[in-house]
């Protein structure tokens, strides 16, 4: 009896591990198929690029060649072949797209949401409020205190020091955003891919809360000396209500409304009016970059 009981338990455990193994195998096979599809797509869009990123038989990706090519284009390769392949496909698709109507664009899932979710506890732990004086011409004056700075190049008062823990936590993400912004910008302006580089003037994480003075950012442009901006929606510990991003763009001017999900990036050309609407509940987190075109 005891033998048959432990035999049954053994069989159950075996069946369980076999199930996990099969799921894992299926997941890997799905990924392989997605990678193969991405390769075929690149081949159909641009044979020359497919040749550069492929293996010797030009039959699939060479991880090394793909990484090398991405670096050449100013992109940061990751450890994840599917992610890099997907990024390349979207860049090629973008560069073939119709002429841009707007000087801003929401790129959905620009940064992997699960990756951001994993980083989120560290983002929270690294976050400190660093009061900043936006100057007497700003409606915020010295009352802005819901951002934590990673890069500070402007002569702000009082001088803010970059908060190293936040930079360590989100530095790579920031570089991914810059690389994607550069690719987007070249497409927007019709420049050769890789020909324009941006440096980060200011980078900060803002946490909005549903209290007066912390719940919104009123309509503004990011400064006459800012050549481009990125807003990356971050995860949150408490889902929020409100908090849409409004952007005024186009000819004639239109007001566009975006409800961003974690991982979505808003790219904006210089001097685009925008506004973060108030939240009425929860907390909203965003990573914001002000960029300078390198001469
Ligand atoms: O939080 C947002 O969505 C907008 C942030 C922004 O525009 C800024 O900080 O300049
Ligand atoms: Fe802004």
TrEMBL record:
Query: What InterPro entries does UniProt report for this protein, alphabetically?
Result: Oxoglu/Fe-dep_dioxygenase_dom, Pro_4_hyd_alph_FE2OG_OXY
Q: Which residues form the Fe2OG dioxygenase domain?
A: 197-293
User: Could you give a GO molecular-function term held by this entry?
Assistant: oxidoreductase activity
Keywords, ordered alphabetically: Iron, Metal-binding, Oxidoreductase
User: Does the entry feature the keyword Metal-binding, yes or no?
Assistant: yes
Spell out the family assignment given in the record's similarity comment.
Belongs to the iron/ascorbate-dependent oxidoreductase family.
Q: What is this protein called?
A: Fe2OG dioxygenase domain-containing protein
Organism in which the protein naturally occurs = Effrenium voratum
């Amino acid at each position: 009896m005891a033998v048959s009981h432990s035999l049954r338990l053994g069989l159950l455990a075996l069946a369980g591990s076999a199930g996990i193994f099969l799921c894992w195998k299926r997941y890997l096979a799905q990924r392989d198929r997605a990678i193969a599809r991405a390769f075929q797509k690149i081949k159909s869009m641009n044979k020359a690029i497919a040749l550069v990123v492929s293996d010797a038989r030009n039959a699939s990706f060479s991880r090394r060649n793909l990484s090398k090519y991405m670096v050449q284009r100013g992109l940061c390769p990751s450890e994840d072949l599917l992610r890099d392949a997907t990024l390349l496909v979207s860049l090629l698709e973008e560069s073939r797209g119709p002429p841009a109507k707007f000087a801003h664009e929401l790129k959905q899932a620009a940064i992997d949401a699960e990756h951001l979710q994993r980083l989120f506890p560290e983002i929270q732990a690294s976050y400190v409020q660093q009061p900043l004086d936006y100057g007497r011409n700003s409606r915020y004056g010295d009352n802005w205190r819901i951002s934590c700075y990673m890069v500070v190049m402007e002569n702000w008062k009082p001088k803010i020091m970059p908060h190293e823990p936040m930079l360590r936590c989100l530095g790579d993400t920031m570089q991914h955003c810059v690389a994607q912004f550069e690719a987007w910008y070249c497409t927007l302006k019709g420049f050769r891919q890789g020909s324009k580089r941006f440096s980060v003037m200011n980078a900060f994480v803002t946490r909005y809360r549903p209290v007066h003075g912390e719940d919104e950012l009123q309509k503004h442009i990011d400064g006459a000396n800012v050549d481009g901006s990125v807003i990356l929606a971050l995860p949150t510990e408490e889902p929020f209500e409100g908090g849409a991003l409004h952007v005024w763009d186009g000819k004639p001017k239109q007001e566009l409304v975006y409800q961003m999900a974690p991982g979505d990036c808003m790219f904006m050309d210089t001097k685009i009016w925008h506004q973060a609407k108030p939240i009425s509940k929860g907390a909203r987190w965003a990573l914001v970059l002000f960029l300078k075109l390198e001469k």
